[in-house]
Design a protein that fits this description.
Blueprint: H1 2-11, H2 22-34, E1 38-40, E2 51-53, E3 61-65, H3 76-89, E4 95-99, H4 106-119, E5 122-126, H5 135-141, H6 144-154, H7 160-171, H8 176-188, H9 194-209, H10 212-219, H11 236-247, H12 249-252, E6 255-260, H13 266-280, E7 287-291, H14 300-311, H15 317-327, E8 338-343, H16 353-360, E9 369-376, H17 377-383, E10 392-396, H18 402-411, H19 424-427, H20 430-433
Parallel strand pairs: 3-4, 4-5, 6-9, 6-10, 7-8, 8-9
Antiparallel strand pairs: 1-2, 2-3
């Protein structure tokens, strides 16, 4: 397209680096497309990136800008070296983006993709010959005012009105919306980045909690606490204690053991608390909820890799293992990166729970993964209570209090006056109330 050629010619006139150069323009265009800030690397040391996104609990993106002329050849060895360098410098990286006002040949694309795959990193090329209109043209056309202002300020001799007409025609191309959507999706939520997995995990878990059929398939029990029409007894006192553990987790990194006997409502209390927090708090960590029968391995890395692979099977387990390794390099923050629920460990007594919990109790897991365990009190007290080296906080689920019992009875057309004293303790058991 002639209009694209005019645009690329102007872009190549910009200085390659700095806020007022090609790098600065790309940073502003990416921010406009994704809604996220991108920061220029410090002068003198780029370490495989000219720009990078903010880090905490989101997809981590690094961008390399090459303001090459049309006939300037890419230096294959240099680019591979820069990818190696950025992986060393930001080991928790999710996505590496290469931006250039020229085409990137298939062989180089393949080499960089294979190198990124080996490191557990996604890769994206924004260039001039990939689609019609190109990804670079679409990135510019998405923000006509930003690019016009940047060019007018730094290339005052350019015809800005002509530039706006050129970009406007790109934006009116029939395939512009689809190319823009594809580009935006890759940048805003990279296919297997942490942020993407977090969103997908939340949606899947809420779906499983919202259907008896889905909950049976996922957890081998009825756990449809979020299904429309289900009258959930809100155990607010229990929720408050779980919340107290969670809000102070950053200070102690202790696992929470929720104890009780058969039918005390341990699993429903935990799953309803998780559902409430997923719905109300966008920064609530992605939750892997495993019934004891679904715990696939007593090797911690394998357990997580299997869970990731089950969520997204288009990647091999080897890639997920590398991606997990990268995520474990993320700095400790005030909340966990993952919440792991091990539900009903007493139901699988021959499993090596001690081995699993011992590893989860130390770095790199303990400061990044919060753990909730549900277990019968008799089993926990017999096999785990005296293990002082496994640091936990215990919560014993009490029977229904009067308010909760009254609510449960009223849902069944009954009241406390209908209950014989000889059966009142039995009626306190949550499972019987259901």
């Amino acid at each position: 397209m002639d209009n694209e050629k005019r645009l690329y010619k102007i872009l190549r006139k910009l200085k390659p680096s700095g806020l007022e150069g090609f790098e600065g323009l790309i940073a502003k265009l990416l921010q406009s497309l994704t809604g996220r800030r991108f920061f220029l690397a410090k002068a003198g040391y780029q370490g495989g990136r000219d720009l990078s996104s903010e880090k905490e609990c989101a997809n981590i993106i690094a961008v390399e800008c090459k303001r090459y002329q049309k006939n300037t050849a890419f230096r294959q060895r240099d680019l591979l070296g820069e990818l190696e360098e950025i992986h060393h410098d930001i080991p928790e990286l999710d996505l590496w983006v290469l931006v250039a006002p020229r085409g990137i040949d298939e062989r180089l694309h393949q080499l960089l993709s294979c190198s990124a795959e080996d490191k557990g990193i996604e890769i994206l090329m924004i260039e001039t010959e990939d689609t019609i209109p190109s990804s670079l043209s679409v990135l510019c056309a998405n923000s006509i005012d930003i690019i016009s202002d940047h060019i007018q300020r730094n290339l005052p001799d350019e015809d800005i009105q002509l530039l706006r007409e050129v970009i406007g025609e790109i934006a009116n191309h029939g395939k512009y919306p689809s190319v823009k959507e594809k580009l935006s999706n890759k940048l805003s939520i990279s296919t297997v980045g942490y942020e993407s997995w977090k969103i997908n995990r939340k949606e899947l878990l809420l779906k499983q909690f919202s259907s008896e059929r889905d909950s049976r398939a996922a957890f081998h029990q009825i756990l449809n606490i979020a299904e429309i029409g289900i009258n959930l007894i809100e155990r607010r006192n229990v929720w408050e204690q779980i919340t107290g553990w969670y809000t102070s987790w950053k200070e102690h990194h202790k696992s929470l053991v929720v104890q009780g006997e058969e039918g005390d409502g341990k699993t429903w209390a935990i799953s309803s608390w998780i559902t409430k927090h997923m719905r109300e708090y966008p920064d609530f960590p992605p939750t892997i909820f495993l019934s004891s029968q679904n715990v696939s391995s007593d090797e911690v890395t394998e357990l997580f890799v299997n869970a990731f692979n089950k969520d997204s099977t288009y990647r091999k387990k080897e890639f997920w293992a590398k991606r997990l390794r990268n995520w474990l390099e993320r700095p400790l923050v005030s909340r966990p990166y993952i919440l792991l629920v091990l539900d009903g460990i007493n139901e699988r007594p021959i499993f090596k729970w001690k081995k699993l919990l011992e590893v989860l109790d130390v770095e790199p897991w303990s400061g990044r993964v919060a753990i909730i365990i549900t277990c019968r009190s008799t089993y926990w007290n017999k096999y785990f209570k005296n293990l002082k080296y496994i640091d936990v906080k215990s919560l014993v689920i009490p029977p229904y209090n009067d308010e909760e019992l009254t609510q449960a009875l009223s849902l069944n057309g009954l009241s406390l006056s209908n209950i014989n004293e000889n059966h009142s303790s039995t009626m306190d058991i949550c499972r019987l109330m259901n």
